[in-house]
Amino acid sequence: MFGDQIRNLYKINLNLKTGESLLVFTDDEKDYLVDLIDEFVEVGKEFTDDVRSLVYGSLKVHGTEPPEDLWRITFGDEAIDTLKEAGLIERILSKESYPVEEVISILKEKAVGVPKVVVAFPYFSTTHTFYRKVLTDHFGVRYASMPLFDPSMFLTSMDVDWDYVARLSRDIAEILTEGEWVHVRSEYGTDIEFSIKGRKGIPDTGLFHNPGDFGNLPAGEAFIAPVENEAYGRLVILYAPDRPLERPLTFKFIGGGVEDIEGFEEYRNFIEDIFKRMPEARFIAEFGVGTNPKASRPDNLLEAEKILGTVHVAIGDNHTFGGTNRVGFHTDYVVFEPTVLVGGRGWEKELLTRGKLQKI
Fold first, then answer.
1. Is residue 122 assigned to a domain?
2. How far is 236 from 75, CA to CA, in rounded Å?
3. Residues 164 and 259 in one domain
4. Which of 8, 27, 55, 127 is the most buried (most CB within 10 A)?
5. What angle in degrees, to the nearest 10, is found between the helix axes of 77-85 and 68-75?
């Protein structure tokens, strides 16, 4: 049904070359994702004989390390058995402290047949995981992450001028890199300031052509890891990752973390439970600016955070893209029609005014 669109994804977004090894995986959270993987595999076989695929049990939380079965199909049994014998794989999967360099050394020595290209569309994201970071940073894998993906996106936010998205994302990422602080306001109550000093802006261009390139599909944002203990103010949330909230919630940030939640909504119970189980999940993790002119769905985080004219703020894990917080949770919250100031020593720029992108 989506053969042409998947073919374009392989050609345009991933530049999949004849004979390159390909890994496609998802989880079983949604039946349509399990069905879609067969199409990805069949179209992939037009490019290469080395197509691997896996469907694993849903992990229920964004940012959780994927299961051992996926590590095995990616790196081979010998590499994972060696990690197990050293007592490391369990610590990796639980995001406990572990000797990163030792893990990387074992994988580089023992791994066999690591894929060149990965298409990851489990419902719950693998973007902010050590698994993804090892593949892109140390094995040069091109990695497309598609959490919360809905096939209808092939006809909307995936059907876009990717060169335009890439240029705009890179330009905004440069501004974030130069900046030291950000102030975000919205007419419905968001008013939050945080530091980005010393952190690097990253463009999510949708074009993963070079070794180690990674990002979302649909793509279209520039993002950065704020300084984890320097966020103050109020973030008003209108949507959970996959639905509108019945009532808004307000996260009150002090010293970088959510100190209090105002409002009564079922999603509050979920977040408070996360904070009890994972206290580090309450800290600011990401700031991003949407750059995709064909993204429009506010009720699906994958697309909502790409909407041109929006920004998003995340809490939780950010150690894989320039931050220091390592925790088994990462979720973004979109701010609609924001006014955004970015500044540094002696300068400031109004990047967005009530959702209108200003001249870059």
1. yes
2. 42
3. yes
4. 27
5. 130
Do 134 and 33 share a structural domain? Answer: yes
Same domain, residue pair 231 and 103: no
Say if CB 14 and CB 119 are below 8 A apart: yes
Same domain, 210 and 335: yes
- Boundaries of domain holding 81: 3-147
Quickly count helices (H) and strands (E) in the chain.
10, 18
Confirm whether 152 is domain-assigned. Answer: no
CB 268 within 8 A of CB 301: no
Clarify whether residues 130 and 169 are in a common domain: no
What pLDDT is recorded for position 95? 86
Predicted confidence at residue 151, as pLDDT, reads: 95
pLDDT for 7 equals: 98
Residues 187 and 69 placed together within one structural domain of the fold: no
What is the spatial distance between Cα 139 and Cα 117, in angstroms, rounded to a whole number?
10
* Averages of pLDDT over each 10 residues, the chain, 360 residues: 96 96 98 96 97 97 95 98 96 92 98 98 95 98 97 97 98 98 98 98 97 97 98 98 96 98 97 97 98 97 97 96 95 98 97 95
If 0-12 CB within 10 Å is exposed, 13-18 middle and 19+ buried, where does residue 109 land? Answer: exposed
CA 33 to chain centroid: 18
Strand 142-145 relative to strand 214-216, pairing: parallel
Burial class of residue 97 (count of CB atoms within 10 Å of its CB; 0-12, 13-18, 19+): exposed
Amino acid at 236: V
Could you tell me if 112 and 161 lie in one domain?
no
Quick one: angle between helices 68-75 and 130-138, nearest 10? 10
Residues 126, 169 share a domain: no
Q: The domain that contains 92 carries what CATH number?
A: 3.40.50
**46 located within any domain:** yes
23: alpha, beta or left? (left if phi > 0; alpha if psi -120 to 50): beta
- Rounded CA-CA distance 155/152 in Å is 6
Query: What pTM did the predictor assign?
Result: 0.90
Please say which residue of 127, 147, 167 terminates a domain.
147
Which CA distances in Å does 205 have to 14, 173, 212, 319? 11, 11, 13, 21
Residues 311 and 342: beta-carbon distance below 8 Å: no
Residue 233 belongs to a domain: yes
Number of separate domains in the chain:
2
